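Quick one before lunch.
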Amino acid sequence: MTVSALGEPCVLLKLGEVVLKGRNREMFERRLQANIRAALKETGLKVDLRQRHGVIAIFLPEGTSVETADAVAERITYVPGLVWIHRAWRVAKTPEAVTRAAVELLAGRDDVRRGVSFAVRSRRRDKRFPLTSMQLDRAVGGELNEIYGLPVNLKNPELVVSIEVDRDEVFVYTGGLPGQGGLPVGISGRGLVLMSGGIDSPVAAYRMMRRGLRVDFLHFSGIPFTTSESIYKAYALVRALDKFQGGSRLWVVPFGKAQQSIKASGQDRLAVIAQRRLMLKTAEEVAHRIRAGALITGDSLGQVSSQTLQNITAQDDAVDLPILRPLIGLDKTEIMATARAIGTLAISELPDEDCCTLLAPRRAETAAKIADLKQIEKRLDAEELAVQLADSLQEYKLEG
Ligand code: ATP
Ligand code: MG
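Model of the magnesium ion complex:
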């Protein structure tokens, strides 16, 4: 393929909800651009971002190969705040250059050889172009029809050739990769995810990142009464999720001794909720230290005994910070589908020794009374214990 006829490979990004945010838009766009730059840092490429109306163009250094441009587009599919990522060609702003690029773009394609139906869709962000969108559609479509003999189908084409006339150049492309949608990470502040090794909490983290929260991760391990396995698992999960935000931090609290104290307090059926409240109190203390404004859990209503309405009420009572539960109304199958799509399911399904199994009672209370829980906490001095646990925090930074 002669690159010269096609111009320069570049990547065109379509912004999601950001477009709708009125006065905050500039701030959103700046955040999104920063996130895109951060995501591309690992490529070592010197990229040039250009903000247009509802679109960001990524210009790559001269001579960048098509493969590298494809890799850049692929990497950007993980950055929240974008709905479409197009590997495009940047061509000169003349009808002739556009037509030539469109012809070149379809050369040698299997579907073109098969004779797919097609349509040309032009859009002008800059109206100072000699042709209207419709005229451009016709001119390019006519040429493609003549050269390749493809049938035009405006309603339901199998192949769409997209043309976007911009201020300084024209972009030509076919197809595209769906983005994450949602909002740029960081635009909604910071949250702290209570991260088990299970299936749900990584999905909850993903959901909140996609709503613009930057998240830190907090894992409670059963150490010293369990191995470090659950930490490795949490670490692997954080690494898998890091592609959505970058710079992720995992915090680990050795929780085994505190669990033993809860167990020793005798109230077997309340142990699970008492432990969950202590986790939340500790998480709240950690959140204050890292300036997070919310706690996030993977709770889903009714999934397990700790997730009845009464028990969720008892958990909310333990802390002042809001507890966000993005999975509350989802079925397990829906959660698993997301886990599979974001690449965490296989990690979550690895065996481990979760700290929670240390105190699995024969029958867990499904309607815990807050007064009873407060009794246990008084004996434990839970507020002080939560501070001590937060003091024992260990940070695991992602390498590289
Ligand atoms: P998950 O799949 O996320 O483990 P689950 O269905 O197993 O959830 P629970 O074990 O009741 O449900 O946990 C509910 C939530 O409590 C989890 O989603 C997580 O946010 C938090 N949590 C549970 N165990 C831990 C832990 N060891 N460390 C940190 N958070 C935890
Ligand atoms: Mg669990």
